Amino acid sequence: MFSSITTAALCGIDARIVSVETDVGSGLPTFDMSGYLGTEVKEARDRVRIAIKNTGVELPPQRIVVNISPADIRKEGTGFDLPIAIGILVSNGIIEEEKVKDTLVLGELSLDGTVNPVNGVLPIVCAAKEAGIKLCIIPKDNLKEGGIAQGIRLYGAESLKDVQDILINNSLDGVSANNPSDDFNKKYEAKSDGVISEGVILADGLNEEEDYLDIRGQYSAKRATLIAAAGMHNIMYVGPPGSGKTMLAKRIPTILPDMTDEEKLKVTKIYSVAGKLDAEKGLITRRPFRSPHHTITAAAMLGGGRIPRPGEITLSGSGVLFLDEMTEFRPELMESLRQPLEDKKITVVRLNAAYTYPAEFMLAAAINPCKCGYYPDRNRCHCSEYDIRRYIGRISNPMWDRFDICIKVDEVTYEDITGAKDSSAVYSSAYMKEQVEKVRLIQQERFKDSVTDYNSQMNMREIKKYCRLDEESSKIMESMYKKLSMSARGYGKVLKTARTIADLAGSENILSEHITEALIYKKNEV
Question: Of 140, 130, 64, 144, whose CA–CA distance to 107 is shortest?
């Protein structure tokens, strides 16, 4: 007898609806599977057979053939266990086929029949909703994650026997939209726009109590950080050890605008596919801050692996990717960031398929000016000029060109620490966030008819339209362009930064003081 069970396969950060086709018949007892399957999917035959037996169902010796269609999509992971098991039960007449109509089934099986959680439930439930499927049977531990997608009925399965019983007894008729649990629905009340309000921040070491007021002094560095956050410009901090470079970077998410509902859902999908979503919490509502160690591999940074997963540049989407001690990262890894920084996406090509992941992040980096960290203080720095050039040379000129702002972070004085002379006290996170939100509204209005979102993303046509210079500013720009041997990309980045500075000042036009400040940030490049 033939049966078809609907499930889904992950393709990058999206999901594709697929069918688990099962046929059982007389003959030698075999269990054959096809459909462009990964190793984990092929191993399902043993897990499924034993799970069905331990559920109390004795199947007669029979020939079982399973095909997961369409065959041009690579199927990876263990989420196909439960639909395969249900398909076998339907083919044997234990469950009526009508009971699984318009139903998506997903989950991993243990040998005792327990349904285990899987990755990527949120994009799969969203794909099911778009396909018009009325009910999703998913692992109970993934229920809160799946509940983010409003407008579709969900059932959280604990075991294969649990699913078998509710399908046979037609118990699913009482399952309400999103969750059969009243406690869940009470806790996760939906807003009028259909987005669940409760969430979790997944940020490395980010504390919501952190504030720029904690950083003494560093007026110019805070000012540069404010400009970078306002226009989503990439920023580099250069300074000696202990000057506060990491503290400045870690607080950037505290001044970024609150995430939109679209951004929340998009980031949550990414973390769901990557398997980094907390099972006890739902929607991500805070902007990510990722700070990988310099020993990170290319696959972990860019995405990929045997079973492709999003890398750090994707996990930091709509937030900040911070590279501390950037000169310690492998040069080839740094060079591989150049294209994603420009394209805002990365395509990982494997033998089986090509996966495209978004890379819409703000890059922040920190370096010391030399190996010991104290150049140009020759009382403490004994590095030779050759050693200094070699150390800074680990970052190539094309990579330097990707930074809109480079700011030198000076050592903090005793007066700054004690608060006797803190000229940057006005720069609290609350004040800076207010300024950033003001500039973001200006950009939103400016680019309302464009795919561009921020000043840093302007193309050459938009630069000509929105970054016109008066005669004085033009002369300054021409002089510094020649003096700094600037590239065309560097020229564009100076104008984009100047546009953000003008927006902060509430100026419609870019004035000489705006272009001068932007050039200072470009001149600071080591």
Answer: 140
Residue 294 tokens, joined: 């310099």
pLDDT tens digit string along 198-209?
Answer: 333 334 444 556
The residue among 508 and 216 whose pLDDT is bigger is 508
**85-38-124 Cα angle (round to 5):** 65
Separation CA 88–CA 98 (nearest Å): 15
In the 8-state DSSP scheme, what is residue 150? -
Tell me what pLDDT residue 494 has: 96
Helical ranges in 110-218 per DSSP H: 121-130, 143-146, 160-168, 182-187
Task: Measure the CA angle with vertex 184, ends 258 and 141; round to 5°.
Answer: 90
417 against 20, higher pLDDT:
20
Ordered DSSP codes for 250-310? HTGGGTSPPPPHHHHHHHHHHHHHHT-S-TT--B--S--EE---TT--HHHHHEETTTTEE
pLDDT mean over 140-159:
91
Burial class from Cβ neighbours inside 10 Å (0-12, 13-18, 19+) for residue 196 reads buried
Mean pLDDT of all residues in the chain? Answer: 88
Tokens of 443: 């950009």
* Closest residue by Cα to residue 61 from 17, 26, 112: 26
H, E, C per residue of 298-361:
HHHHHEECCCCEECHHHHCCCCEEEEECHHHCCHHHHHCCHHHHHHCEEEEECCCCEEEEECCC
- Hey, what's the torsion of the CAs at 34, 38, 42, 47, to 10 degrees? -140
CB 94 within 8 A of CB 25: no
Tokens read off for 180: 């059969």
